[in-house]
Automatic annotation (TrEMBL):
Entry-linked InterPro entries: Znf_DskA_TraR
Family matches, as Gene3D superfamilies: DksA, coiled-coil domain (1.20.120.910)
GO molecular function, one term: zinc ion binding
Pfam families in the cross-refs: zf-dskA_traR (PF01258)
PROSITE patterns linked to this entry: ZF_DKSA_2
Domain spans labelled Zinc finger DksA/TraR C4-type: 82-111
Keyword Metal-binding in annotation: yes
Zinc finger (dksA C4-type): 87-111
PANTHER family for this protein: GENERAL STRESS PROTEIN 16O, RNA POLYMERASE-BINDING TRANSCRIPTION FACTOR DKSA-RELATED
Protein name in UniProt: Molecular chaperone DnaK
């Protein structure tokens, strides 16, 4: 495994995750501002979802994005220490195709089941 190749790849993935987090944070802030002063939970587009449902969905997506950010940071730390691409459970190398699909993976597929 070429560490520089993986560093570039992980950096790109990390930026995608950060961008997604920023977009979700901005969308949630916009929704919060739209809800400010509203007491009716059912304010919504009659053909769309309720604001409360949208808020809940965005909060869940944001939580997931923040978890992905944390995993990206851990992957970068593992790369720096030389442990990236090694299964935390069994110690065997994680196949490259698995890392390309899930770059923040800490365990091989066998140990993840």
């Amino acid at each position: 495994m070429d560490p520089e190749r993986w560093r570039t790849f992980l950096t790109e993935q990390q930026e995608r995750v950060r961008d997604r987090t920023r977009r979700l944070e901005a969308e949630l802030k916009t929704l919060v501002r739209a809800r400010r002063g509203e007491s009716d939970d059912d304010e919504h587009d009659p053909e769309g979802e309720t604001l409360s449902a949208r808020w809940s969905m965005l909060a869940g997506l944001l939580e997931s994005a923040r978890e992905d950010e944390w995993q990206a940071e851990r992957a970068m730390a593992r790369l720096a220490s030389g442990a990236y691409g090694v299964c935390d459970s069994c110690g065997r190398p994680i196949p490259f195709p698995q890392l390309e699909v899930r770059p923040f993976r800490e365990r091989c597929v066998s140990c993840s089941v």
